[in-house]
Amino acid sequence: MWKRHSCLRIRPAIYNDKEVFGRERDTFLLPEDITQLAGMEEIGATVVAVYMRYLHDVLKQANMCSMVGFIDPATPSLVLLIVRQREETVYFSGSSARKSCGRAGRKSVIWKTLSGTPKQPSNVECGYYVMRFMRDIIMDPSLAFEKKYAKGNQEAPYPKKQLMKSGMKWAEFVCQIIEQGNY
């Protein structure tokens, strides 16, 4: 499908309004982003950012944007943070060390590591796992991820077929934007 598609001959810039990452910005896709995803090769932050934009649109249609926020993957490290404002808790999944960012007069945030997440077999799958975690969390209306990924509830690695489902949704979203000329 991708070899024949016009996506490989253009370099679309996918617009992200302020609601997606907290600031307006374009995400520029390169042909190698598309071929890496299509070949199940290691993907970069650009592919993940476009998937976040897709998930933001899904959340917008369900009127759930206020429940989930995204951190721009163009920042130095890919991590997954889920913030529960009512409980003043931040759930953390990623390889980076946590930093305490306290401000005078503010309560300190409670950090919880999601240690029961499925473990990726190698570095190649990292971006695919991040996309799948985001999808699983958003598609669960109860947002019961803390129980699902709690310590001791270790899940088996995702099968390749499940990881590619996120890739297919990404591809459909990108093709739709390109065909509509919304880039």
Automatic annotation (TrEMBL):
Keyword Protease: yes
Record-level GO BP terms: proteolysis
Keyword Signal attributed: no
Record domain Ubiquitin-like protease family profile: where: 105-145
Keyword entries, A-Z: Hydrolase, Protease
Any GO molecular function: cysteine-type peptidase activity
TM region(s), chain numbering: none
One matching Pfam family: Peptidase_C48
Family, as annotated: Belongs to the peptidase C48 family.
Protein name: Ubiquitin-like protease family profile domain-containing protein
Native source organism of the sequence: Prunus dulcis (Almond)
